Amino acid sequence: MTKNMISGLLSVVLGLAYIYGATLIPEVKAGDEIGPRLFPYIIGISAVICGGLLTLAELRKKEREPFSFGFVTERPIWIKIFAIIVLGIFYGETLDYLGYVIGTILFMVLVGSILNKGRLVQNAIIAVSFSCVCYGVFSIALKLSLPRGLLSFLPF
Question: Cys staple from 5: which of 18, 40, 58, 117, with CB 3.0 to 4.6 Å?
Answer without folding.
Answer: 58
